[in-house]
Amino acid sequence: MELLPLVCLCLLSCSGDGVRVVVEEDSDAVLPCSPSTKEDITAKLFDWKKDGQEVFMYDSGIHYNNGHGSQDLQFKGRVSHFQDQLMNGNASIKIQNVKMADSGNYICIFPRLQPRQTFNIELVVGVKVVVEEDSDAVLPCLINTKEDITLKLFDWKKDGQKEVFMYDAGNHYNNGHGSPDLQFKGRVSHFQDQLMNGNASIKIQNTKMADSGNYICIFPRLQPRQTFNIELVVGASPEPYITTLNETKDWSLLQCKVRGASQEPKVEWQDSSGNILPAEEPQVSERGGRYYVTINTTVTKTGRYRCVVTQKEINHQSRAETFVFISGASPEPYITTPDATKDWSLLQCEVKGASPEPKVEWQDSSGNILPAEEPQVSERGGRYYVTIKTNVTKTGRYRCVVTQEGISHQTSAETFVFINVNSSSVSEKVCEDCSSAVAFVLGAAVLAVVVAAVPFGLRATNCITVSFNQGAAPDPTTTSNDPTKDIPLLQVRVTGDHQDQNGSSNAP
Ligand SMILES: *[C@@H]1O[C@H](CO)[C@@H](O)[C@H](O)[C@H]1NC(C)=O
Ligand SMILES: *[C@@H]1O[C@H](CO)[C@@H](O)[C@H](O)[C@H]1NC(C)=O
Ligand SMILES: *[C@@H]1O[C@H](CO)[C@@H](O)[C@H](O)[C@H]1NC(C)=O
Ligand SMILES: *[C@@H]1O[C@H](CO)[C@@H](O)[C@H](O)[C@H]1NC(C)=O
Ligand SMILES: *[C@@H]1O[C@H](CO)[C@@H](O)[C@H](O)[C@H]1NC(C)=O
Ligand SMILES: *[C@@H]1O[C@H](CO)[C@@H](O)[C@H](O)[C@H]1NC(C)=O
């Protein structure tokens, strides 16, 4: 059950000399008071009281909010006057965040005016309870003093006349004393253990649409007599239900279902910022006065999505949320060697079309972050393209690591670089060096696959490129994005979805 932000119900109705102000609980109430003379009251005295409690006093610029007088605790810090309205003879006050207990009869007095003027204002703080059909509803009622009401009388009525429940010092409708309207027979109970707290709330079981309406809870014998207003709305939509019908690495087909709302709801898909998503036409069916709604949408970006159900007539909204991970969002990085000599190798790592924006780093085989040029980042249609280069001078394995923190996703690619600093002086031995290097590289490649564990992440792809440069005569290199054009002596490339943590399942 969720209520929309309260829409002000500020009804003003004049009955005789009194004014009635009706507001919903938790909103602010303005209680009006203006002497007929409309004279400037900036230098006058006025006093607000409620059933004997001190609510607010103003005396020529001094008032309860600047340290004057002894305001009742119930109102401390919640009541203010309208300073700029005083010169128009307006002594209205605002009570913030009203509660049921603020309901009652207020008076606004000008004791020093001739003739002395007094105004009566009744404040009614209404409560709205919204429930699904067939569920139970608790209608709240709590007297202002919170005194024990075990030996008191209280009465619940619906729409001014129907008898709902009556309690009188231990006798009530459920123990053979009187009976309610047929509509409520056997369905309404009070909370015996709450009576000592002044709590006269009731529970209506198995609510039906016909139970919707305005209820009052009355204490006819209390002085002053207390009345509370509660609006019951039956027919709220149950929470929607989200399923993923189909998904690929590029999109996800989501379905939202609302089952059995009693008032026809509007159902929409929204992204996390509240933008309405394009969706297929919803399917709506009605059986026995209940509405069943299904609506699909296809999303192509990683993120949070929600299905929102709005029932305007009853001012009610409910929602469900889901997180969608689009794995195509973070493609594997590509490693190339745009330039190399016998002494160094320039390595380039490219990530194309990642979303959300990734962090891309070069690491050595121990996981140390390597100094690298500032990455080049560009963005097209919410997808990020990142290129980062590093210059290495030692034989070893190097890794390009792509991290998308927001979605706990990491992927990496690895390359092996062989720097033969002595190649020119040992040209005759190149072949031997070569074969042993290949053997070593093979071992390293297998090892790399095994150790390329993905520390976290839902899915990860690993791409391992192993290559080495032959001393002074480096292989022709290209900046092509395709690592296979890099003509390494040996290349092992592994890709795949690793669901297991050690990532070894795809080893060649
Ligand atoms: C008094 O001031 C309040 C707050 O500005 C305003 O809402 C109210 O209408 C005013 N009353 C009169 C009679 O002008
Ligand atoms: C009154 O009692 C009902 C039932 O136990 C409870 O749900 C409700 O919160 C109580 N109200 C207050 C104001 O304590
Ligand atoms: C999911 O979508 C793919 C691609 O459109 C399609 O080939 C496949 O049949 C769909 N699967 C289901 C269960 O609908
Ligand atoms: C939602 O998609 C599923 C699978 O493609 C389809 O069977 C169903 O009819 C769709 N529902 C709506 C309301 O578009
Ligand atoms: C790589 O580093 C070496 C040694 O520090 C340097 O001589 C060479 O110019 C660098 N290459 C590039 C492309 O920056
Ligand atoms: C390179 O050659 C020199 C002299 O022959 C030798 O001392 C050195 O250890 C060699 N370095 C490597 C890395 O093989």
TrEMBL record:
Pfam families: C2-set_3, V-set. GO terms for biological process: regulation of cytokine production; T cell receptor signaling pathway. SMART domains: IG, IGv. Residues 471-482 have a biased composition (Polar residues). Residues 471-508 are annotated as: Disordered. Residues 5-108, 111-217, 238-324, 331-417 form the Ig-like domain. One of its GO terms (cellular component) is external side of plasma membrane. Residues 1-18 form the signal peptide. Keywords: Immunoglobulin domain, Membrane, Signal, Transmembrane, Transmembrane helix. GO terms for molecular function: signaling receptor binding. The chain crosses the membrane at residues 437-458. It is found in: Membrane. This is Butyrophilin-like protein 1. It comes from Sparus aurata. The gene is LOC115583230.
